[in-house]
Amino acid sequence: MYVCCPDGHPVRRAQLTSRANDKNIPKINFAASVLQQEAHALTLLARGLDTSFCDAVDCLYGISGRIAVTGMGKSGHVGRKVAATLASTGSPAYFIHPSEASHGDLGMLVSNDAVLAFSNSGNTAELSDIILYSARRGIPLIGVTRNSDSLLGKHSTHLLLLPLVPEADPLGCAPTTSTTLQMALGDALALTLMCHRGCSPEEFHRWHPGGSLGRKLLTVKEIMHSGAEVPLISSSTPMPEVLCLMTGKGFGVAGILEKDRLVGIITDGDLRRHMGITLMDKTARQVMHPDPVVVDEGTLAVAALRLMQKNQITSLFVTRKGEPVGILNVHDCLRAGVE
């Protein structure tokens, strides 16, 4: 069954996931129609992308300064979020409030910056000063609006037109569909710039050291044990010394070296398998398990944890160009919040 959304387009009646009486059905259906309408608008926006979008990306990529994002009202809220997204994905950006700009903050803009302005109508009065200032100073202006004949549309160096679609509210007045389009286009600009710059996971981690993102991007090198903490010993070492090393370091494992290369490991399990009156007469090479599982120091900690879980082991030796430089224990990952 279908119902009509505010602009008259039919949408499929939402399926209720829990018991509801008749008075709830109109609410669910109206909410679904809002989402359908905004999704339709995003489809139109994607289909309408052309070379002007590429020109805007090239302009923002080519500046040596920062991207000043601006907008008033709900478009200003969008602008703040877009500025944060740009900055967090490798494109230095800041938000400048149009009214504050008219009272001195225009001094924040310099000639090697670019302005990214959001305005649905394109004629927001508070934006006029920053638009005209950019034009006078030759500062590139990327305008996001649905009105090419507006002040913003006429003065934009690169104009990104939004599709002419109604707002999703019953009166057609509240910024809803228009701000969704602005937000999505801002994300598209930021992420296209990010891809154009060739952003690496290491760079992204530098910008997001905290929270769950930071934990997901931690590398083994950042949480491993190194230096004197690493239980390494020569393959010719008698087993009594190996046992002392394993006990002293506390990892339940020893890395066996030949010419500074890791050739094997001895674990608590290896000791049990070789337990007998001759164990203490053997050398590390005679007891070791060859070809141990190792990780490079640049490996993501979450990938190292998965590797330990897959192989049912609790520690991994960490290498740099084939040479052991550290050891990582499953508890190191858990303490760092990696899971």
TrEMBL record:
PROSITE patterns: CBS (PS51371), SIS (PS51464). SUPFAM superfamilies: CBS-domain pair, SIS domain. GO terms for molecular function: arabinose-5-phosphate isomerase activity; carbohydrate derivative binding; metal ion binding. The record marks K74, E126, E167, H208 as: Catalytically relevant. Keywords: CBS domain, Isomerase, Metal-binding, Repeat, Zinc. Its EC number is 5.3.1.13. This is KpsF/GutQ family protein. It comes from Nitratidesulfovibrio vulgaris (strain DP4).
